[in-house]
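Q: Predict the bound structure with fe (ii) ion.
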Amino acid sequence: MLPEFYQFQNRTKVIYGQGLALDFTHELEELGTNKFFIVSDRIIEKLGLVKQVKDALLSGGIEITGEFFDVPQDASITCVKEISRLATETKAKGLIALGGGSVIDAAKGANFTFTLGGDLIEDYSGAATLTQPLNPLVVIPTTAGTGSECTLAAIIYDVENKTKLAFSDQFLLPNLAVLDPVMTRSMPPGLTASTGMDALTHAVEAYVGIDSSPHTDALSVAAIEHIFNNIVRATENGDDLEARGSMLIGANLAGIAFSHSMCGCVHGMAHAIGGLARVPHGIANAIFLSHGMEYNFEQVKEKFARLAPVMGEDISGLSIDNAAQKAIFAVKKLTARLNRLDALPLRLRDVGVSEDQLLKIAKAAVEDGTSIYNPREVVAEEILVHIKNAY
Ligand SMILES: [Fe+2]
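A: Predicted complex:
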């Protein structure tokens, strides 16, 4: 059945190619400036990736006004303010973010005050606070997970209050996303697997969420196919640039999908253990994905049945129920395989979550902003059963 109404828009230009991160200067001409400030983190800098990209930009006539490498694991308010201050002080006219989700979100967050001045929290918290475009933002992802290079959201950590602040706006969408698998080559197996499972979770949740549409369905299915066919290959052999490329594309498609139809209870539970036990986001999603699918089973089993063959399962002759179960089975099989490669933990007890925290996780999942998009109402006592299964 078609939705009564939906809309779809993606303002970000996406370019893909092996080695493209060192050869995209000509793409910056249409952004109206050649003065850029670079945002990255210490790991990416130490790997030498920042220098490679910067040298290529300089030789292409781009002026780099300054750099900031101190983005922490979760982009913090302090670092966002510092990026904005330095970019303004050095008279940059645009930002280039080179890194994973935190680096990208830090650059997105900084772009509010870098472009318009004011106070990040007081003036721009929440959704749709902007009425005009921000300064040009170019993003080169070094992980294949968040899809943040094509989403309208930025998550910034409020260290003082131990909460994650969500900013979302059409104008936060980057102008240009440069997808180059070479930039993701140095990700270790654990990070490859966990960020890839985050992307898979985006695709599955966007596919079954209450705001899904034919457009997001198409993107989600394509994303799931790319990720399922390549996550093990990319984890086993980081130099497999075909697999790395497919993971980047899969994560990007999933990002565009969930930017429109949002995530659901798996992310709700993952956010909860991210806050309570500091479990990294991708690992948290990997642990909860099959359990969240079980929670939503009755509401979206027709959709799960359609996903099973995309996940490589044979459903010929099966009932809808049995075909849908195959999709959950495929996810469990995949996480078990990644676990055997020592790339993923499987259970909550393995990541520092204690049994007495399970009810808290259930309650936090209900309160999480994602619960309103989940196909089944998120009720603490009911989802607790599945959280216990994940323990
Ligand atoms: Fe996520």
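A: Strands lie at 13-16, 35-39, 63-68, 94-99, 126-127, 137-141, 153-158, 163-168, 176-179.
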